[in-house]
Every structure is written in C-alpha cells, then in structure tokens.
Amino acid sequence: MSAGRKATERIVGPRLPELRALLLDATLRWRVKRAHTSVSENGLRRQALRFRRSMRGAFTPPFVNVERTRIAGRPAEWVSTAGASAKVVLYFHGGGFFMSSPEEHRPIIWRVAAATKRRVLAIDYRKAPDHAFPSWLDDAFATYEEILARGVAPADIVLSGDSAGGNIALALAHRIGTRKLPMPDGLVLFSPWADVLCEGRTFTTNRRRDAMFDGPSVRALGRFLTRDCDGRDPEVSPIHSDFRGFPRMLIFAGATEVFLDDARAVARRAAAAGVDVELHVHRHLPHVFPMFAGVVPRAKQAFDVVRQFVSTDAARNLQPPPRSTSPASPP
C-alpha cells in the first residue's frame, strides 16, 4: 500500500469577484435557491419537472455528436467530438438523486468530451422518489461491467460526475474494489455530494454564501433519501469509504458552496490512504460551476485541467504528487 500523502489544494480565481460571477450569483439566488419546495415525493417531482422545463433548448454545439443508446438496461447517451479516441469517460449527472438526465446535463458533458477527446457515456440512472438506494449505484455498476465486457480496458476508463453524480462515481469505485474488479484509471469529480448526511461544517458556514442551496434543505433531502438505509454506508455516503486502492482523483468545488467540505474531506481521506489527489477550489463560483462555463468564462479553466489530467499516462499515478499548497488567506 502507498504511504499517506497530502492532498494538493489549489485556490483559483481573483480575490474580488468579476461582474459575470456576481450576475450568475444573483440569478441563481433568484431562480434556484428561492424555488426549493418541500422534500416529499410530490415536491421532488415538481422540482424535477421545473428543472426539465428550464433546460429545454439548452445549446449543444453542432460539432458535438450525440448518439442515444441503451446500456445495462438503461437509456444513455454517447457524447463525443471529432477525433475522439476509443477511450471512455463514464459520466454520472447530478440532480440530488431525483432529477435531471444526460440530456439536461449536456452543457457540462459535451465540454468534458471536448476537453478529453474521449467518448463520454452518460447513463440515465434510476432516481428517487420512484426508486431508492441502491438503484442508482446498481445501474452504475452494471454499466461499468458492460463496458468491460465490450472490451474497454480499465486503464482506458475515467469515472466522472457532478454533485450526486460525483457521489455515484465514488460509490462505484468503492463497489468495484469490494467486488475485486479492476479499477479505472481515474476519477474526475465536480462538487461531489459525498456525505448524504451533510455533516460537514460548510453546510452551516456557507449557508448564506451558497447561491443555490442552504444547509437545512440539503440535509432534509439527505434524510429523505436515507430513511430506509444507513447514511454512513460507503455506498450511500462514499466519504466513509476505505480509499486504499482507489484511482487518482481530480476534484473541483466552489469556495462558497455548502458542499465544499465534502470535496475537502474526500481529498484529505483519499490522500491519507495513498491516493494521488488534487483539489481545485474556485473563488466566487457556485456548486458545479463548470456547468456555467458558457456564462462565466473563468469556469472554462476547469476543462483545461481536466484535459491535462485525463491525458496524463496512468503510470504517473505511481509517482509522488506535487507538494501541497495552501492559500495565504481563506478563499
């Protein structure tokens, strides 16, 4: 087993927010944060429907190829750009385990495809309230097994996801390890919701700073999702995983989001288990900020980092990580 390491945390962005970041913050507070409904079966369905309507007509550039398919019994999309290799990014969209789809999350998925020059497979996994844990993880694991069965080498697979999808990617890595299957090459996570019980400090300290969520509403959703299971099960809250043997990780988070401590805890615990981890925390940008790269140009920087990470040969995972860095002052 590798010796413990220090996670590299990089604070990114200017100390003062640019105008577009301020406008995005105000828009999200008006359209998202104030629009949350009660956490109930009907409330979640209404919220999912509102999100679906808000994403209608989301722009997909003409150079992006989208091929709808089914894999492991679930609807899915292959998203790619010209010159894409046969290597795969297996992507899990966010949405609190109850809303969204590959199509609705395509604004981030196509940018991952363009940055990595890989085919991105995004599955429409089963969701609450019609389904409960471990439905979404079962779908993710069955998809990974099928990709392997189709002849894709584990070293040619990167797992990725945002928010709840980041949870699924981490939980999938945990299950892959417990089932003794070969691990993928890496994990790319955008604002992962890794602790469904929301025990991190930033669920309180960033409650007002977060433009999209507040701690109590996310905690209420977590209680709803875990009402019939153990919220500290690593397949439910992968923050509690034994990270030994996990692949290298690249993690992004916004400095003001309530989920920030989830990203930091995953990075810290994985590094302590010998995993090569790099965490990028962007000032003044929201939860899953790369989703808004078309609005705030600075968010595009994340995809440059993703490109470099994915193109790095897997063998470099065996090398010592760069020296940990710390900001001169809090973000």
Keywords:
globular, nine-stranded mixed β-sheet, alpha/beta, single chain, Rossmann fold, 331 residues, disordered C terminus, 9 helices
Sum this structure up briefly.
The protein contains nine helices and nine strands. By secondary structure, the chain is of the alpha/beta class. It has a single domain (8-318), classed as Rossmann fold (3-Layer(aba) Sandwich), CATH 3.40.50.
Name the strands of the widest sheet in spatial order: 1-9-8-7-6-4-5-3-2
Biggest β-sheet, characterized? Answer: 9 strands, mixed
Q: What would the CATH topology be?
A: Rossmann fold
**What is the alpha-carbon Rg in Å?**
18 Å
Main structural class: alpha/beta
Count of separate DSSP helical elements: 9
Overall form: globular
Helix coverage percent = 25-40%
Our measurement of the CA-to-CA distance between the termini, rounded to an integer number of angstroms, reads 34 Å
Descriptive notes:
The chain is an alpha/beta fold. It is globular, with a radius of gyration of 18 Å. The chain has a nine-stranded mixed beta sheet with strand order 1-9-8-7-6-4-5-3-2, sandwiched between helices. Strand 4, helix 3 and strand 5 form a beta-alpha-beta unit. The longest helix is centred in the middle third of the chain and has 15 residues. It contains nine helices and nine strands. The two termini are 34 Å apart. It has one domain: Rossmann fold (3-Layer(aba) Sandwich), CATH 3.40.50.1820.
